[in-house]
Amino acid sequence: MKLEDFLAHVNSGKRIVDPSEELEYCSYLTQEALKVTMELNNAYHTPEEVQDLFAKLTGSEVNRSLALVPPFYTDCGENIHVGDGALIGRHAMIATLNHKQDPAKRGELLSAAVHIGKRVWIGANVTVLPGVTIGDGAIIAAGAVVTKDIPARTIAAGVPACVVKEITE
C-alpha cells in the first residue's frame, strides 16, 4: 500500500477494519513513528535537526520557523499538518488514531488528520486528539486535552480544552 492511498482512505472518513491492508499499513506507520520519536526524544538535537526529524515523522516539509521542544509523541505522524511559526512544548502528544468504542470492534481504528494553524502555541503536556483543527494564532494552555476544534486567536485550557479567552492584542 502507498501512503497516498492510506491517507485517502482514512481522510475520507472510512474506518480501518481488522484485518485489512489498511490496518497492516497503519501498524507499519506506527512503528516508523516510534522509531523517529525515540530518536527525537533520546538525544540532543539542534533546532534544525528537530525540524528534520519532525519532517521525517510527518512525511512532509516543515517550515524552518517550527519550534518543537522534545519529548514529543504521536501514533502516526503522517496525518499531522503544522503551519508556519508553530511552537510545540515538551511532552506534547498529537494523536491521529482512535479505537472504536464498541468492545467487539475495538481492534478497528478511526483515523483523522490534525491541523495546527500558523503561529499556534501548544504548551507543555498538551494532548491533541484526532480530527482537531487549531486555528491560526491560538494558544493551547499547558496540560490541556484538545478534543474539538479551537478557533483562531483564542486561548484554550482545561480537560477537555475549551476557549477561555480571545486574543485581542
Automatic annotation (TrEMBL):
Keywords: Repeat, Transferase. GO terms for molecular function: O-acyltransferase activity. It comes from the Bacteria. The keyword Repeat applies. InterPro entries: Hexapep, Hexapep_transf_CS, Hexapeptide_acetyltransf, Trimer_LpxA-like_sf. Pfam families: Hexapep. Belongs to the transferase hexapeptide repeat family. This is Acetyl transferase. It comes from Lactobacillus delbrueckii.
